[in-house]
Every structure is written in structure tokens, then in C-alpha cells.
Amino acid sequence: MEAKKKKFIKELLTKSKARRESGLYIVDGPKMCKELKAYDIESLFVTKNFLESENAASCKNLLESVAYELVTEADMKQLSDTVTPQGIVALVKQKKNIDIKELLSESKDKTPLLFILEKLQDPGNLGTIVRAAEAAGVTGIVMSSDCADIYSPKVVRSTMGAIFRVPFIITDDLCSFVNEIKAGKYTEGVKFNIYAAHLKGAKEYDLLSYIEPTAVMIGNESKGLSDELTGCADYAVKIPMCGTVESLNAAMAAAIIMFEAGRQRRHK
Amino acid sequence: MEAKKKKFIKELLTKSKARRESGLYIVDGPKMCKELKAYDIESLFVTKNFLESENAASCKNLLESVAYELVTEADMKQLSDTVTPQGIVALVKQKKNIDIKELLSESKDKTPLLFILEKLQDPGNLGTIVRAAEAAGVTGIVMSSDCADIYSPKVVRSTMGAIFRVPFIITDDLCSFVNEIKAGKYTEGVKFNIYAAHLKGAKEYDLLSYIEPTAVMIGNESKGLSDELTGCADYAVKIPMCGTVESLNAAMAAAIIMFEAGRQRRHK
Fold first, then answer.
1. In this predicted structure, what is the pLDDT of residue B188?
2. CB contact burial A51-81 (16+ within 10 A = b; e otherwise)
3. Residue B199 DSSP label
4. Which residue in A17, A264, B92, B95 is deepest, having the highest Cβ count within 10 Å?
5. Strand-strand pairing, A41-47 and A88-93
6. Alpha-carbon gap, residue B263 to B135, rounded angstroms
7. CB proximity B239 to A under 8 Å
8. Could you tell me which residues are beta bridge partners of residue A169?
9. Is B209 exposed, middle or buried (0-12, 13-18, 19+ CB in 10 A)?
10. What is the DSSP string of B20-75?
11. Is there a contact between B55 and B79 (Cβ–Cβ < 8 Å)?
12. Strand residue runs (E) in chain B
């Protein structure tokens, strides 16, 4: 395998700038790769061992529709950021930033439920939130551009594939976005309820309704939501906690609110 | 610092056998150390830099009541398994396995809510579950002895201190335990509802009541609950999921059920 190509992939694994500039990212392992569409793939790398393993069967469609490059085990180690590479790595095109109108119209008959993330820093948290969002039936995720890079290998891996399925938008101006959906700009005047998850929230999260179009805002792991964004909310909401626990992990807090919303929507 | 002592602490950091045999474990950093009681501490190690830092104030009581050993920065690196040690590490006595009768009578007026963990393997998951359990008002956690070691540094750290406050029991025979509480053996004949979290559960978790004495069983991350333990349950319960998500992370699933139980109990 060419040294230049190896170097490029190394950069995609480690640098968000390289990912942003190239519009590419790395998907690692058969479980995630098998979900890829051929037209999203820029390059596909496999080892001989992988082709001869049981796992190859799960990627059969992919291996038949994409011209892959056979690489040595040693090369594969450099294409993967895991300790034990699984023998298949894809170089994948990033999704275009989807249009908010498109996102909200895609949710058609159902009422939109958005989760809005401000400056979320931990890749594991971000990945877990995307995974939980899909499970809870969240319409889409909106991130400030200073969140952890959703295309970093750790985020991609911890979404367990949900990154391919949950629509998301990255924006430089979260506050304007929130004010726009609040006013019903993209939903023919139908206004959103905006809730800000906040340790000092006045409302308990489970005493609010998530049945109407709703957006829930989750802040940075250590600082929480900015005052500016909290100020955009209809309510600051808290998860009541027993004991002397100061806070829940951000992903946990998000998931608890997501599933409360899901619960209400299933039983409405 | 003595080489022998350093070696012993290294073993406590890395080997559950060393922790089990000595009945000791390591607590790292001011945030956790400040919660320790003097009589729980076997030894306390601090650096000069720590004593001169702002963080020392938060541990004032501890530093005044325990004879600490001053160690060099280089030694501190060996006493901590974190990349940037915070300058204070305690060698702490493990809690005695608390008696189940004691645990259930401690919950006095409130109705017990137990979480039962079978062969949970990931330290981060275990720690997160203990942390969420405190926040959700869970009475106690019961673990099979083949769960990840609750006293491992990673678990201790990810509980964020909840390990000091959430009562827990470790048992070799989870099935007998479950059958005993189910029959009301420790609660003067008051029976427990036993729910098994299961991907193929027939009941949705939020259609069951957690108002009576309740125990919820959570299984191993990849294999789920054993058939034997599932067989002890009154109901196998599932968290309904949208999309093509196969499962939630075990800690996430546990937390969602915990907070549903907490929600029902707050609003009963």
C-alpha cells in the first residue's frame, strides 16, 4: 500500500481538520461497514484473512459492489485506530449537511422531536447520544460546530451505526436556529416547545409534555448550557436526583429525557 | 517511598485478586478522597504540590484527621492509573458485604427498589450504573460475583463517589437470592416484583409498575441475562426501540428503567 495513502488515512483517523477538508471519514469493522452504500464509499480496504473469515459473509453485498484494495495485516493496523483491527476499513464520504426544512418535512405525520447539543466535548457521549436518539425515535440532532467531531473514529464507533440513520445538522449559530424553530419558521408556523436541560431547571423533565413539536437542548459536560441558549428556552428542565449526586453524565441525561419523550408519544 | 509499598499499590491498581485478598482498594483524586471517612483509610499519599494547591482546601478535614505520607511527583505517578495524577491517593478499606436484611430494613418507610446485575463486564458500565442508581433513588445493587470488580480504579472513578453511598451486595448465587426476595424472605413476607430486562421481553418497561417492592435484573453486555435468571422473573421487560438499533448499552438501559421507576414513585 502506498505510503502517501497510508499517511492520508492516518490523518483522517486523528485530525478533524483533515476530515473536514477532505469531506471523508473512516468506518471500521464489518458490523458498521456492511451498512454502507456503495456510492458512499471512496475506498475499501480488506485483508486476506478477512475475506477468508466468517465475517466476510456479512459484507458480501459490499464486497461484490465495490472494488476493494487488498492490504496486508501490517497495513491494516495503520488504517484502524483499534487495538485489534477486524480486517475491513472503508473511506467514506461525509453526509451533506441536511436542510432543516427537509429534516422537518421528512418527519411528515409524526411531530418533530429534536435534540440540540451545545459544545458537547466527549466523543463517547456524542456517539452514545446518537445511538440512543435513534432508539428513542428522535427526529434529528442539531449540533453546534464546536461539538466533538461526529466523524471522529470514536464517535462513529460508539454510534454503533446510528450515525448512518439519524439525521443531523451542524450549525455555527445555534441560538438563531433555536429562535427560528421556536417561531415556527420551518414548520408552517407550528411552534416548537424548547426545553433546556439544566441542573437548576425549575421544571421536572417528566412534568412537561413532549407531544407537540419539541426541541431539547443539552449543554457542555462541565459547563452545561450557555446562558444565551438557556435564555431561548420556554423552560429550563431538570432531572430530579436523589442522594448527593451532583449531575448525571450528559449522555445519560439526554437518554433519560429522550425516552421520557418516547414514552409519552407512545402512550398519548 | 518504599519499593515494596509501591509494588503493593501497583497490584491493587491492576489486579482484582490483590484487592480481594487485602480487602483494600485505591481512591484517586481530591473529589473522591474528600468524601472518605478517616476510619476507612488505611494510608493516604499526597504530594507537596497538592498540599499547596487550591484543591487541598476541599480535603482539609481529611488532611487534618489522617496521618498522610508525603510522596514525590514521580512516586505519585505510580500510585495513580490516570495520565495526570491529581496529587492525592488513598488506600481504602473495602466495605463489608452488607446484609440483605439490613439493606432492606434500611430502606424503612420507602419500598425497596433493587437492581440486580448478572455478569456485567465493562467497568465503565458498572460505575455508571452505580452513579445513576444513586441519582434515581435505587435502594441497593446486587451483583453476581463474576461482575467486573466494583473496586477496580475505573469503576470507582466512574461512580463519581456513588460507590461510597449506594449499598451493594456481591453474591455467588444470584438465582437463590432472587427467589428469596421474590418469596418475601427478608421483608416479612412482602413479595418483590421481579423484572428481567430482556431484548425479547414481552412487556414494555413503562407499562409495568415499580411502586411495590421491585427488583430489576440486568444481564451481561453481549449475552444478556441467563435463561436461569430470566426464568426467575415475573416478567421479561423490554425497552421499545425505534429504527434498527439492536440494543442499548447496558448502563443506558439500566438508567432508563431506573428513572422510569423513580418517575412512577415520585408521582404515585
1. 84
2. eebebbeebeebbeebebeebeeebbebbbb
3. T
4. B92
5. antiparallel
6. 12
7. yes
8. A142
9. exposed
10. HHHTEEEEESHHHHTT--GGGEEEEEEEHHHHTSTHHHHTHHHHHHS--EEE-HHH
11. no
12. 24-28, 41-47, 69-71, 88-93, 113-117, 140-144, 168-171, 193-197, 203-204, 214-218, 235-238
pLDDT at residue B158 in the model: 93
Burial profile A89-101: b = 16 or more Cβ within 10 angstroms, e = fewer: bbbbeeeeeeebe
Residue B249 contacts A, CB cutoff 8 Å: yes
3-class SS of residue A236? strand
Bridge pairing between strands B168-171 and B140-144: parallel
Name the grid cell of B89.
491517593
Residue A246: exposed, middle, or buried by beta-carbon count in 10 A (0-12, 13-18, 19+)?
A: exposed
Q: Does the beta-carbon distance from A252 to B165 stay under 8 Å?
A: no
Residue indicated by cell numbers 441536511 = A98
pLDDT per residue as tens digits for the range A172-216: 999 999 999 999 888 888 889 999 999 999 999 999 999 999 999
Range in A185-194, B49-58, B161-170 the model is least confident about? A185-194
Residue B243 CA to residue B261 CA, distance in Å, equals: 25
CB of B80 within 8 A of CB of B28?
yes
Give how far A234 is from chain B: nearest CA, Å.
Answer: 22
Q: What are phi and psi of A20, to 5 degrees?
A: -65, -45
In SS3 terms, A10-36 reads as HHHHHCHHHHHHHCEEEEECHHHHCCC
Task: Say which of A135, A240, A251 has its CB closest to residue B242.
Answer: A135
Q: Do residues A126 and A153 touch, judged by C-beta distance below 8 A?
A: no
> A68 phi and psi, to 5 degrees?
-95, 160
Show the beta-strand stretches assigned E in chain A: 24-28, 41-47, 69-71, 88-93, 113-117, 140-144, 168-171, 193-197, 203-204, 214-218, 235-238
Task: Give the number of other Cβ atoms within 10 Å of residue A154's Cβ.
Answer: 15
pLDDT for res A16: 95
Q: Which of B242, B248, B263 sits opposite A137 (nearest CB)?
A: B242
Sign of the Cα torsion A8, A10, A12, A14 reads negative
C-alpha cell recorded at residue B113? 427498589
Contact yes or no for A243 and B132 at CB 8 A:
no
How many Cβ atoms from other residues are within 10 Å of residue A260's Cβ? 23
Question: Cβ–Cβ of A252/B132 closer than 8 Å?
Answer: yes
